[in-house]
Amino acid sequence: MEPVKKLLLVAAVALVDTDGRVLLAQRPEGKSLAGLWEFPGGKVEPGETPEQTIVREIREEIGVETKVDCLAPLTFASHSYENFHLLMPLYVCRRFWGIPEPREGQVLKWVRPRNMRDYPMPPADLPLVSHLIDLL
Known about the structure:
The protein has 136 residues and is of the alpha+beta class. The protein contains two helices and seven strands; from the N terminus they run ββββαβββα. It has helices spanning 50-62, 129-135; strands spanning 6-15, 22-26, 37-38, 41-43, 71-80, 84-93, 107-111.
């Protein structure tokens, strides 16, 4: 039997622009999995819903505003890392205000879903790409 690992709940969002591209963020140096591309989002804090987490995180990380009712659940990732197990719902958001700008040292890039596999991603994010290709 596998040892019990801490469950980490993280919420992520596929921000979709009017051209059908999705925003990816490259993890900055000094963070775990630095250099890999991921969907914006972050850890769900106590008392928060995953949707509230996304609204807060994209405001803090990339300066973009949205509302909870602009988020549509798409799928989720469940992945076991060495020291924890990650559960990550992925939402799609087509309605947001502002132009994304990196506020935490990350690099941002708008990418067509069919090209996302050209960007190295964390193991938990990679399986989510096929859902976006099917959707968009």
